[in-house]
Amino acid sequence: MAEDSAVTIPDEPKVGVLGGTGDQGKGLALRLAMAGIPVGIGSRDQSRAEDAATETGYGCIGRDNATIARWCDIAIVAVPWAGHEALVASLADPLAEKVVIDCVNPLGFDKRGAFPLPVPEGSAAEQAQALLPDSVVVGAFHNVSAVLLLDRDLTEVETDVLVLGDVRAATDAVQRLVSLVPGMRGVFGGRLRNSAQIEALTANLISINRRYKIHAGIKITDLPE
Amino acid sequence: MAEDSAVTIPDEPKVGVLGGTGDQGKGLALRLAMAGIPVGIGSRDQSRAEDAATETGYGCIGRDNATIARWCDIAIVAVPWAGHEALVASLADPLAEKVVIDCVNPLGFDKRGAFPLPVPEGSAAEQAQALLPDSVVVGAFHNVSAVLLLDRDLTEVETDVLVLGDVRAATDAVQRLVSLVPGMRGVFGGRLRNSAQIEALTANLISINRRYKIHAGIKITDLPE
Hints:
Two copies of one chain form a homodimer.
Chain A: E1 15-18, H1 23-34, E2 39-43, H2 46-56, E3 61-64, H3 65-71, E4 74-77, H4 84-90, E5 99-102, E6 107-110, E7 113-116, H5 124-131, E8 136-139, H6 146-150, E9 159-164, H7 168-179, E10 184-190, H8 196-212, E11 217-221
Parallel strand pairs in A: 1-2, 1-4, 2-3, 4-5, 5-8, 9-10
Antiparallel strand pairs in A: 6-7
Helix pairs in contact in A: 4-5
């Protein structure tokens, strides 16, 4: 979608988490729903989506992916990398003229840990943009620990969320959305062409987690509060 | 060099900053010298190295690159990316059996800002390791603002420095070195195969600097102090 495209984003958007029954999707759904945002979880399998929504609570609903894609104002693609291309391609129509947040990290794993996988389009976010010519894709939530997101004893998830994209209205809206979650700050992190390294950075955070036995996140220094 | 290679690193290593007359090199030389570490600046042109050393002060010396490479215990490669391959290849002999820190970011620039350049070996650090089979290459100092490093009014440069490498004794030594600089914390950031995204992350920090008019760095959350 062209850089000057006019996306319409309501002040209080409904957020759909597509492929949202994994830990990252459920964690994001939980934090957004806890913050009072209307949230829907989508899955290929409606009954799994309904179970995840019940588990999440806070008014969260669960349906099949296409229904949630149509229902929401802003979508979050939270499917595992292996299913990314097929899921995104199948939802081009219901996601048209919407902001689509991609949080997927193309990573491989072996006994030495995690490492980035090559992506022909450059990054998961750029692959999504190529498959969704009538949507505005924004990268965000790549580096947030699912363990922390899902820990209901934790009232704040202290982290910066880098928000990447080429359309200012869309990145601004996603920064606002992020900042509704207690502890999180949405920080503009550059254009989509600079997404690959933010996706891949998750491999480093996994290395850090192993070494220090923590759930690492990142903060940007020198930003005004 | 094999992962189990025994590198000998003195408790109080002399640090050589190779290709060190640019802002990043001079900034790192200044901060290390201010911390009481013996520092030498290397350049192709000995008189430029001597000028940079005089400007730095704190006992810093300046010589040609090969002399500094031979003199130091730990080297920092701080040359611009365009000169990286040639400089590193030319110093394989004097750098043998030493720890070589690579802080070079392979970035391109156009009117939209900075973006990562493809590197056949994967990253600058992996290119250096391929060219220095008898040295141990460690990635570090990629994301530290030269402006802050060179600001003598700033007593502390508050940032985490991700340290990447495959040889534990070497990454440990570099973490200790980093942590001698007031404000800096050396954090293990993963293996060399996960260096590319840390080098490329500098493009995002440049985008952040443009947007927010700051000198951004990063901190890792959830680490014990």
